[in-house]
Amino acid sequence: DCLLVYRLKRDCKLIYNSLKTSLPCQGEDRRGQMYELNNFKKQKSFRRGLRIEQTKPEGLLWWKLRRRQLGYKFRRQHGFGNFILDFYCPELKFAIEVDGSIHTKDFKIIKDNEKDIFLEENNVILMRVTNYKVLDNVDSVVEEIKIACDEISKSQTPPLSPPWQGEDVLN
Length: 171
Known about the structure:
Mean pLDDT: 79
Radius of gyration: 19 Å
Shape: globular
Distance between the termini: 65 Å
Low-confidence stretches: 1-9, 12-26, 29-35
């Protein structure tokens, strides 16, 4: 079973890389002009529909993430490239995907791997949680998310500058 997943991931990466060479680079159109990767207009009504028809685990998690309750702003059903992320924190470039049982199917594993590769190439950190885990204990999932957010925030904060060279700090 793990071997199958590995092979699918490897095959997906090969397919994605071959497609990528024939398509314009992400964030760049055919003329070399940069474009925004967030919330394409063509996805707007679809994203709105996903927000209206959210799953129960997505609703539970959104109730805990909304209104900066963790100290970070999250968006739900956020478009990024050709993909739609369940939850996204633009400040940290951090995405959360809530995966149901369909994500164990071969076609969905391939699509998820394409999304993972694209996000990684665009420096977006992705956390995947299962529907079951959210339904079983949403508070522990929220705690894991809070810890991840704080770690990402710390890693993005520039270090304090050292004392001036040649000067004694105590004097």
